[in-house]
Amino acid sequence: xxxxxxxxxxxxxxxxxxIVGKVSAHPFYVSVSEIRIDTQKSTLxxxxxxxxxxxxxxxxxxxxxxxDLLKTLxxxxxxxxxxxxxxxxxxxxxxxxxxxxSFVGLEKEDEAVWCxxxxxxxxxxxxxxVTSALLYDFLPDQINIIHxxxxxxxxxxxxxxxxxxxxFGF
Length: 170
Prior knowledge:
Elements: H1 2-23, E1 30-38, E2 43-51, H2 52-63, H3 69-72, H4 76-89, E3 90-94, E4 97-98, E5 102-109, E6 112-120, E7 128-132, E8 143-150, E9 153-160, E10 165-168
Parallel strand pairs: 1-8
Antiparallel strand pairs: 1-2, 2-6, 3-4, 3-7, 5-6, 7-10, 8-9
């Protein structure tokens, strides 16, 4: 009988740990943004990786409706919300000119969502300023890492909330 109780206890403990593991948040809050500039093609591409649960929490607070991004990644309304959220909290300036970014799409990767934007037709390259406040209004410990590639040369910056601006020179 003791052996049977141990099995039952083990199963209950395993179920409890499984539930707690799914409910508890991840221990760090980091986004990664990659900006790739090709001066010969005059293209600028932005890829941003955010934890899905953090983004869902932010959207739920802003838009006052629950979000399950993994089930709705192709929904045009979700694309609109993502673009609006991003445009209000992320920008790129090149030689003092703010770049216009167009939303491209979203894709799932494990516990994260990759979000994509692009820009074209910029004529000059100079000092580059990136402003990123993604998730700062909801996560005081948020860190935003930025990797900037210009013609395959890379520079990186780490912004810790409340730092929002990173400057790059090429």
